[in-house]
Specification:
The protein is an alpha+beta fold and about 120 residues long. It has 1 helix and 9 strands.
């Protein structure tokens, strides 16, 4: 009877440990061509300096690193959007990164694109 009780405890413990294992998966979904937006992002203050990113190994030989950038979050605070790998839409395409451009007293986001 004592062995049976230990077996139940052992099985219950293993089940509890297994239930706590969770894998997190991040999926990047590119914007669809022709998607509508509310207009260009405009900020009254300059964005912070770019963050230093550790660039991981590319998932394949054709992938290109698209660096992170500052975006405007809910409430107008700055939010860092981390870089990621992307596939060029055609051979020899070059990524031109987005940037914040001064327009009068404001800063306007000029989005990145493939050239």
């Amino acid at each position: 009877m004592k062995r049976y009780g230990l077996l139940i405890i052992a099985v219950g413990g293993i089940a509890a440990l297994g239930a706590g294992c969770v894998e997190r998966q991040v999926v990047y979904v590119p914007a669809q061509p022709g998607a509508t937006t509310t207009g260009p992002a405009v900020a009254e203050q300059a964005p912070p300096p770019p963050q230093v990113e550790v660039v991981p190994v590319a998932p394949g030989p054709d992938y290109v690193w698209l660096p992170g950038y500052w975006s405007i979050g809910v409430g107008g605070s700055w939010v860092w959007i981390g870089g990621h790998y992307g596939l060029p839409p055609r051979p020899h395409a070059i990524w031109v990164g987005g940037h914040w451009s001064r327009r009068g007293r404001d800063y306007v986001w000029i989005g990145g694109h493939w050239r």
